[in-house]
Amino acid sequence: MVLKLPPSSAWATRTQTLAVTGSTDGGSFGTLVESAGRTVDPSTGNQVALTFSGADPLIAYHRDR
Question: Which is nearest to 36 in space by CA: 52, 20, 22, 12?
């Protein structure tokens, strides 16, 4: 998953704490990506790649926190 933020002119380089949870039914959510500080930098496109290890490919719902 790639989280893309507004254009680089709108943001300075920063560390953002992010986590992702997912669910197949929209009711019971489990952790897909642990909470951690991620660097968001305009010089690299103002985006962050989040990798799901072992995530169910049928996840229908996700929450970015």
Answer: 20
